[in-house]
């Protein structure tokens, strides 16, 4: 009898949903290994202040490294731009709608000077670019908590995929188009990691990998890596695949939304990360992104 696959995951309702979704796709017996991350322990500090990308994944990855779990299931948007050498993303099995949504009020209906709850510098900058009058307040906590706290603000911003997965889509007031709000790298996608030397598990994961989604996410991660990987400035990317080509729309912005640099690049699916890197280099070298990074770098 084959032993159950051990799946490391955070303990939130959304994380459990994602892990159980992957298990269902694999069609095998499984045991969830619940892990508490830095981001789970500190629910008040801004994400960028406690480490940015990686605060929700490092401890989950460590469970796989130690052998306490066979795979780790993540929201792809939580992953750092570079995968550690001893791990591999064995599957990106699916992607829900990558867009962001407003809960509480539609953008055009917000009165001048309204306060929007969001802890994301990416979301703040893009909203400020189209509505400079808006104010922003920190918002942390799991998805149901953030939705319930919408009453404390004029509106809050939440990933549409999370709302749909937790049956909270009825709380959406407006889905923001990518022309207004470019998503975070990997938003809406699931990523499943295993140890790089675990060929058997990698083979099992390959069976549930969605090639087009994996290519799109790889392009987006290439974009983030070229910006610096740990970039804490507002940035986003969204890629789509059409046959043999992948098209990526990338963004880097000033934190106050006064400068928004955006570039679209199309290239071959055989090297999606290169497409992402190309878009980032265009923003950095041709559109003034390098100067923007230098201007907003911490003292």
Protein model, in words:
- The protein is of the alpha/beta class and 299 residues long.
- The relative contact order is 0.14.
- It contains ten helices and 13 strands.
- It has helices at 13-26, 38-41, 58-66, 121-130, 143-148, 160-165, 199-206, 211-227, 272-286, 289-296; strands at residues 5-10, 30-35, 71-75, 87-91, 100-103, 115-117, 135-137, 155-159, 174-175, 190-195, 235-242, 245-253, 260-268.
- The chain has a five-stranded mixed β-sheet with strand order 2-1-3-10-4, sandwiched between helices. A five-stranded mixed β-sheet has the order 7-6-8-5-9. Strands 11-12-13 form a three-stranded antiparallel β-sheet.
- The protein starts with a strand and ends with a helix.
- The chain is globular, with a radius of gyration of 19 Å.
- Helix 8 (211-227) packs parallel to helix 9 (272-286) and helix 9 packs across helix 10.
Could you name the key traits of this structure?
10 helices, five-stranded mixed β-sheet, globular, 299 residues, alpha/beta
Number of DSSP strand runs: 13
Give the SSE string. EHEHHEEEEHEHEHEEHHEEEHH
User: Rough shape?
Assistant: globular
Low-confidence parts: none
How far do the termini sit from each other? 58 Å
User: Which percent band covers the strand fraction?
Assistant: 15-25%
Round the Cα radius of gyration to an integer and report it. Answer: 19 Å
Helix content: 25-40%
For the largest beta-sheet, the strand count, sense and barrel status come to: 5 strands, mixed
Kindly report the spatial arrangement of strands forming the biggest sheet: 2-1-3-10-4
Classify the secondary structure makeup into a structural class.
Answer: alpha/beta
On the 0-100 scale, what is the average pLDDT? Answer: 92
Tally of contiguous helical segments: 10
């Amino acid at each position: 009898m084959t032993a159950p696959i051990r799946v490391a995951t955070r303990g939130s309702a959304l994380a459990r949903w994602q892990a159980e979704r992957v298990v269902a796709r694999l069609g095998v017996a499984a045991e969830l290994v619940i892990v508490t991350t830095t981001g789970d322990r500190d629910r008040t500090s801004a994400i960028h202040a406690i480490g940015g990308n990686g605060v929700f994944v490092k401890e989950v990855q460590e469970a796989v490294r130690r052998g306490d779990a066979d795979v780790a299931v993540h929201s792809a948007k939580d992953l750092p731009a570079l995968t550690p050498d001893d791990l591999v993303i064995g599957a990106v099995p699916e992607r829900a709608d990558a867009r962001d949504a407003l809960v509480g009020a539609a953008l055009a209906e917000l009165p001048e000077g309204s306060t929007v709850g969001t802890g994301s510098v990416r979301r703040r900058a893009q909203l400020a670019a189209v509505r400079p009058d808006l104010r922003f307040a920190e918002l942390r906590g799991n998805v149901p908590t953030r939705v319930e706290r919408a009453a404390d603000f004029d509106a809050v911003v939440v990933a549409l995929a999370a709302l749909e997965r937790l049956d909270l889509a009825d709380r959406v007031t407006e889905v923001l188009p990518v022309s207004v709000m470019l998503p975070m790298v990997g938003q809406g996608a699931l990523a499943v990691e295993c140890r790089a030397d675990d060929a058997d598990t990698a083979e099992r994961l390959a069976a549930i990998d969605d090639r087009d989604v994996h290519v799109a996410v790889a392009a987006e991660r290439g974009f983030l890596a070229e910006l610096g990987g740990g970039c804490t400035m507002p940035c986003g990317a969204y890629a789509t695949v059409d046959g043999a080509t992948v098209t990526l729309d990338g963004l880097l912005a000033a934190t106050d939304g006064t400068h928004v640099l955006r570039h679209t690049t199309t290239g071959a699916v055989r090297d999606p990360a290169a497409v992402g890197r190309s878009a980032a280099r265009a923003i950095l070298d041709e559109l003034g992104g390098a100067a923007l990074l230098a201007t907003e770098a911490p003292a």
